[in-house]
Design goal:
Blueprint lengths: L3 E5 L4 H12 L3 E6 L2 H8 L6 E5 L5 H9 L3 H4 L3 E4 L15 H29 L3 E5 L12 H20 L6 E7 L7 H5 L4 H7 L8 H12 L9 E4 L15
Parallel strand pairs: 1-2, 1-4, 2-3, 4-5, 5-6, 6-7
Helix pairs in contact: 1-9, 3-5, 5-6
Bound molecules: NADPH dihydro-nicotinamide-adenine-dinucleotide phosphate and 2-hydroxyethylsulfonic acid.
Length: 250
């Protein structure tokens, strides 16, 4: 039986790597994001196994309509990868742009629950399936100016655990993948509103993890035997670790 995977944020970074990884394994993949040209390029060369879906996850009604309108061969979803997300801005809270905060909440939290609510009934009805949510180390470990971004990822982490409680006994699995610094994506360019030089500086002189490493983690969690639920995967580059508590001395 062919697995069907629904990946959000598939036009770039992790999502594109995850879509390619599953397609290479022979899965059918629904690749969702806002940029249709990127999705069309991603779908090329997979012989129709990758279905591009232009979708803004912030729009709950559009998500429900898109999921219910999937072509029959892509409608029987087994795996939902809630990957679409973004950081916007890196300012202290009192200077941050409120519209950046709203966009992170709307995408990382509301977008994720829109997709989950739309697809979950399919998984529960067949008594199997897997929801993979992209959290972040920023959801567990605070860092200066991480304010709302980190808070949205704490939401993703707790929502994932709460989902497991609700899905107890249904056979549906839930995993939260929580990466640290990952290069070769548009994450930092988006965070710095298109400033590529500033984005490149984030990874200067260190080796970040790569989108393919994340895709491999996702594939590993999904490929565990059906009686095994991987609750959380936290991974970061060897070059990244922890700092001390900050102490202000007068
Ligand atoms: P990218 O910016 O490369 O990819 C983000 C993806 O999300 C794009 O495909 C973008 O597509 C999509 N997206 C953004 N907004 C929406 C929306 N409203 N509707 C649908 N799709 C949307 O970043 P990454 O691949 O690095 O990030 C992927 C996920 O991993 C995010 O949730 C991020 O928070 C998380 N993460 C990233 C880390 C990193 O260091 N890179 C580390 C830890 C977690 P489009 O613009 O076409 O809609
Ligand atoms: C992205 C990782 O450390 O830049 O979620 O916040 S970090």
């Amino acid at each position: 039986m062919t697995t069907t995977v629904f990946v959000t944020g598939a036009s770039s970074g992790f999502g594109a790597a995850i879509a390619r990884r599953f397609a290479a394994d022979g899965a059918r993949v629904v690749a969702a994001a806002r940029r249709g040209d990127r999705l069309a390029r991603l779908a090329e060369g997979w012989g129709g196994a990758v279905h591009p879906l232009v979708l803004d996850v912030r729009d709950g009604a559009a998500v429900a309509e898109a999921v219910s309108g999937l072509p029959p061969e892509f409608a029987d979803i087994d795996v939902l990868v809630n990957n679409a997300g973004l950081a916007k801005g890196l300012e202290p809270a009192h200077l941050a742009d409120l519209s950046d905060w709203d966009e992170m909440l709307d995408t990382n939290c509301r977008g994720l629950i829109h997709c989950t609510r739309a697809i979950l009934p399919t998984l529960v009805a067949k008594g199997s399936g897997h929801v993979i949510n992209l959290g972040s180390v920023a959801g567990t470990y605070p860092y200066p100016r991480g304010n709302v971004y980190g808070a949205t990822k704490a939401f993703v982490r707790q929502f994932s655990l709460n989902l497991r409680s609700d899905l107890h006994g249904t056979g549906v699995r839930v995993t939260c993948v929580e990466p640290g610094m990952c290069g070769s994506t548009e994450f930092s360019t988006v965070r710095f509103h298109g400033d590529q030089e500033k984005a490149a500086d984030v990874y200067a002189g260190m080796r970040p993890i790569e989108p393919e490493d994340i895709a491999e983690s996702v594939r590993w969690a999904v490929s565990q035997p059906a009686h095994v639920n991987v609750n959380t995967i936290e991974l970061m580059p060897v070059a990244q670790s922890f700092g001390p508590f900050a102490v202000h001395r007068a």
